[in-house]
Target: 4Fe-4S ferredoxin-type domain-containing protein
Amino acid sequence: MMYGRYTQELGVFAKEEAARLRESGQRRSVTERSRALDLLEYEKGRCAKCRICTVRCQKFLISRVGEDWIFLVLLGLVMAMVSWVMDFCIAICLQAQKWMYGGLDSNVLLQYLAWVTYPVVLITFSAGFTQILAPQAVGSGIPEMKTILRGVVLKEYLTFKTFVAKVIGLTCALGSGMPLGKEGPFVHIASLCAAVLSRFMSLFGGIYENESRNTEMLAAACAVGVGCCFAAPIGGVLFSIEVTSTFFAVRNYWRGFFAATFSAFIFRVLAVWNKDEENITALFKTRFRLDFPFDLQELPAFAVIGIASGFGGALFVYLNRLIVQFMRKQKAINKFLMKKRLLYPALVTLLISTLTFPPGFGQFMAGKLTQAESLVTLLDNRTWAKQGIAEEFDYIGHSQAWKHPEVNVFVTLVIFIVMKFWMSALATTIPVPCGAFMPVFVIGAAFGRLVGESMAAWFPDGIHTDGTIYPIVPGGYAVVGAAALAGAVTHTVSTAVIVFELTGQISHILPVMIAVILANAVAQSLQPSLYDSIIRIKKLPYLPELGWGHHEKYNIRVEDIMVRDVRYITLNCCYRDLHNVLLTEHLKTLALVESAESMILLGSIERAQLQLLLSQQLGRPRRLEYIRKQAVAEKKRLSVLSNPSSEDSSPRASQEVRFQISTEESSANPTRPVLQKPLKPALKRSSGVERPTEMPTGPQNNSGIALKNLFCASPVTEGLENNNNMESPTPPELSRPAKRVRISVVEPPPSIKNLSGDDGDVEDDMTIREIAEWEEKQLDEQVNFNNCKIDPAPFQLVERTSLHKTHTIFSLLGLDHAYVTSIGRLIGVVSLKELRKAIEGSVTVKGVKVRPPLASFRDSGTSSSENEATELHKLWDHHKSMSLPREHTPSASDEKSQ
Amino acid sequence: MMYGRYTQELGVFAKEEAARLRESGQRRSVTERSRALDLLEYEKGRCAKCRICTVRCQKFLISRVGEDWIFLVLLGLVMAMVSWVMDFCIAICLQAQKWMYGGLDSNVLLQYLAWVTYPVVLITFSAGFTQILAPQAVGSGIPEMKTILRGVVLKEYLTFKTFVAKVIGLTCALGSGMPLGKEGPFVHIASLCAAVLSRFMSLFGGIYENESRNTEMLAAACAVGVGCCFAAPIGGVLFSIEVTSTFFAVRNYWRGFFAATFSAFIFRVLAVWNKDEENITALFKTRFRLDFPFDLQELPAFAVIGIASGFGGALFVYLNRLIVQFMRKQKAINKFLMKKRLLYPALVTLLISTLTFPPGFGQFMAGKLTQAESLVTLLDNRTWAKQGIAEEFDYIGHSQAWKHPEVNVFVTLVIFIVMKFWMSALATTIPVPCGAFMPVFVIGAAFGRLVGESMAAWFPDGIHTDGTIYPIVPGGYAVVGAAALAGAVTHTVSTAVIVFELTGQISHILPVMIAVILANAVAQSLQPSLYDSIIRIKKLPYLPELGWGHHEKYNIRVEDIMVRDVRYITLNCCYRDLHNVLLTEHLKTLALVESAESMILLGSIERAQLQLLLSQQLGRPRRLEYIRKQAVAEKKRLSVLSNPSSEDSSPRASQEVRFQISTEESSANPTRPVLQKPLKPALKRSSGVERPTEMPTGPQNNSGIALKNLFCASPVTEGLENNNNMESPTPPELSRPAKRVRISVVEPPPSIKNLSGDDGDVEDDMTIREIAEWEEKQLDEQVNFNNCKIDPAPFQLVERTSLHKTHTIFSLLGLDHAYVTSIGRLIGVVSLKELRKAIEGSVTVKGVKVRPPLASFRDSGTSSSENEATELHKLWDHHKSMSLPREHTPSASDEKSQ
Model:
């Protein structure tokens, strides 16, 4: 469906666009030429030429606004500024907390109150603010971006309001010092920025209205988000591709690189200009030795980190989901929390900040350090634990926080890892804009550090045996651990690249790659990625990946999963059939076949189109017309007695009226973008504003009985949140199509005007019984599909298409459903739902005849070819009644199976 | 077409595969269980259990052979070994040359002879060897891989022979010291290796026969090729994606990473084990300072390198193409060279090696150094030119070569760049396996070094003003230049990542990224990439990219480029129509429509299938059957006189025979993979062995007159090279389908056996006139499509689909052509050819009605909706003759346009 919609829209758009451009171009050039002439006339000096030149430059610049690179530069610039300003604010927030905490060191209770109140207030504000302004801003946003880039329209997720809510909410949330990340939200913010920017740019150039271009730009924006968050352009592009795309168009590659590089550059340049740094450097620069970064014999330890991180990552995703599901299931808690929406964030923040209170339990887990500070200390290239004892090492700067007079540094690290692990999993469930990448990254670094310190304690002089001593660098282990755990949670390999760019060193490339790949292998076989997990929790329309060892998927075919009982309408059906189908079936689109016998698929029609057809047939305007016609006929009948020759002209004239109406409808459509989006994706939240176009003549307007019936039975569109659009009555000013029909009725061509009386004259004086009778009669008429938008080439598959291929096609083209045909005949339909179920392996579906995955192998190999032959024969029989020399008798097929 | 083929084949394959696996699994488990029981019975000791365990492990291992990771590990291992062994051999070859040159330093002439003869011999051997063994091994192979991954089958490019030719040829070519690269060929070698390996593995597990899986593995293999060539796994994956894919499946990402990392790891470990290196390090390790790698104010210089590299890259591609085209055009030269194929390589090698002769002109361009050595010196972190004079700097090691007593180092660098530039462009046209990446990389490094040295001379104390002096590092400029020029020639951004991995330092990330992006921007707007240029030169079936600023492409629609005069066959056509269509039309596939009036598209049929149908109808077996039947009828006629009641049974029985034959044919098909590949891609070189299945009963077997006609007129398949398959006569043992038909005729069901006489009895005693008459009669019969393979769902587009979308779909699905339909009606066809022409902007095509790109905007907006309505109406009129209450009169449409 979406594929059809897309092509149609694009075509129409292109047409309009070109027409508009041509027109405006002509107009502009004319006006400009005249302006130039005017200038030349009035000021025949040398100044005129300059002005003409300026005008030309201006014109040239405006024409260039549509170029991709201008948009990308703007996007990069804006995002770099946003990122930098946010970082600045967050740093101030964190400093303020430290300052408060430090200033009150006389009284522990006051210190505790200051330490705890500050984050609680910030988080509560953040939660409340986003809740009020735009609830869509909650969470990381990567799952939503993944869904949007798959082709589903989630409009509310790309508004300016959401942008504001996300930026301010995120700043507050991160300023609180909770274990939250900025990476995921930044992907969303960049996409929001791109969407808002392209809406702004569309004021200048027309190309910004193009949907497919905007999707391409969104993909680039995701890369910018990661790129300017970590100042990691390459890693950003790769991470965004891995996280948001299923199939990536390589031609979009440069866009991402260009924008992300520009953005990262500006982001770092801002830091230099602000005298934060002397030069452009990596965010978390490391200083490992270059000559011998690690020993070949250390690789097993790195592999262990990778495998352990894999398990840890899966556990994190599981824990996160468990917490969300627990909160949902406990109805008592849920009810209470729903009432006091801000209580949950406040409670969680209170718990976490209490535990990290430095003079309290926080002393055992470096609670004093912010996320960035702990990362810097963890990536330090000095060894903390020498000779297995943590005593003699000189902790300087922030590293001091890891030192505890009574407790070993190993114990501190273990406590840090364990505590931060569940804290992060819990904190990311708070309804504020937040990501989980950074907390996970820090935990991974701590785990790596733990392993590294253990290795350093175990081999104090390094493993290398001949000659020079190369001590083990625990900081390298921290780098490996960070990349591995982050990779395991997000199911990406590109965390390795991000790590290189963050640290500015690529010397540990092999250990990092090995650990990341191992972590991915383990994590992917245990749990979905964090983002996929959230997609499932939020019930976004997704298509699960086929996974690593998916070769059994080659063996499932479309015929095993397709719905065979397809609802269709025939080309020669009457309105009653339409009515019945609409009553019984709640599908968004219906197949249009040639006839019930041939079942040749001609196209697909949207449900709303059929409702429109039906309401036009049974609607009040038409009934009034009928009454009017009746009146005219009555009048005529009386006049016929005096002049019998005029009998013929009347029906023809009324025919013309009818045709006038219908073509006004159909020819007006292509020029109206509102109407040209007939095939909205299934999950689009049907808001109260857009609903009326679907049922143009609301139930209260036309007092049709059958229609009322129908609209009451219309399905509740599955909104993502609790949408209250069902209550809103149809605003009369929005029922445009019906209005236009009426207008053309009100103003008939002059030839008819004299025939039909004034429109106002006709009174709707029919009784309910009469109406019912009239409607019954109308329902028996044949449907006229002329003024109905039909998707003329819905996507088709064959029975034998494998699940693997189907998945590929659905992902590639962002399909919602596809018809299964066999030599033109419609035999089934596969929608996203069936496909998802088949991939997930569940086979007990209500109303869907799902055969067990390997059912097709039970059938003998000949059956389907037989089917095909039979079907072809049916076609043949149907369309031809020629006596063939050798006829296909039913007994033959019995014989064949011998 | 390919899409249809693909889905069908996969389905059929999956079915068979599963059936086979199930069967063999059952069989195996039964035999194993019995074996285990046997073991238990005979040796009731503790040993038995061990054995059972072993057997189980073995079974488990065998079942695991199909897993992806095993294949990838094997591939990585093999490629790492190949790469390492090749590098080893190349190093020995180069050393040998140096040793010879060094040993003969008493006599310059002898030295010259040694210096020149050695590469000439090696290159000539390489050229001759590849020419004889596998001419497909010539060149880089990346263009071919791009074509193959697009879905075109170029079988000869993935054989073991080609593998051997490529490996040995490349080793010799690189051992000669010519400016040639190993990267491109390595992509090809890795793919070859994957193809050969999967053919080998298919002996164990069935999944290796799956085509779509093999394509996925080929994509991974490309990454492995780059990865193990440069020990750059990440860059390898990205480069291979950029160079070979149009749309990349993110789910294949990990495969590439996994295999490339493993391969790079083994490649480097081999070096450590061989004591070449102490530890795993980067190939061309740099030692730039970490604290202040470059100054922000140096960025303009880096940008200049980028832009200049862009122009240089475009020039290189242009020069390369120019040389090839010049050699082709000069017919006299061409003729001479074609005769003496090895002369051209020898001459070019002679010229280049003469110019690099160190005591001669080579002294001004560091001719003594090999490619790797010059790269190492160029990336050196010391400054050569201090205070603008090249005197006082201490050249150590290989850097000595850059020093010339009389000539400035700047002049040496300029000469090096200019000479190497045209030498590389020339050398890559030699018909040996060779790439251009590495030479270009070195030239870029030299250019960067030149700029860097100039900067160092200009700002001797660095640009930074406050306090510490940070001198400029020319080595950093070399890194930037190398990445930029390589990126410009190949149109990739990932050369940046390759550079980081090659040098082991990421400190110059920003300058490198900026320069690479600028170089790409310039180069892409001037010339196609080197690989695309070669694709065009070699005339491979490609689809050009839409390019950067492709927004005007949104405005062209399918209806502007489609061929409206589609050749079709109708469901009820007779054999004569088939014959005529086959005679006049040379398309690979033909559309099957319901009837000429309705034009409803039912599917597409391959030309070969139609030929088969026709030959079955007119073939000798059927004629013999006819004669036999005649004889039987004659016999019957005689017997009828005595027993009239048996008249009825005879025709029915013969019907059954006919049906038996046809279903035997169609039911046997799904289980025969040979026959299940009916829709071969258009460009597949039809080899002599496979041809017979397409025309199973060759012209010499059936003496049909019309058929002979037809087969003589059959189009010469466009082979890529001069394929001599036209001469090979049809081997009789290969005409299987026809044979099977005969077999089923020979063994009719018992009920008929007594009716039909012995097959051998019938004599082909018809005269040519009789045959012609008989054929005429046969041609008037209606075609029975029952035993014909029809692609039941060919890809369909609508008229309004934009060129942009069409391009995307064709690239995504690897289509060859697509039908344009409107509500089921076939109205046009778009093939790769039309699409390519539309993208390239040429509109003068013979036989193709191409409207100018923006033609559709000249039509008014209403026209197409009118068309649609009219078409629907036609359908309606055609299928229904009901009198509608309001008829669509032609006058109405006139009125509408008012």
DSSP finds 34 helices and eight strands in chain B.
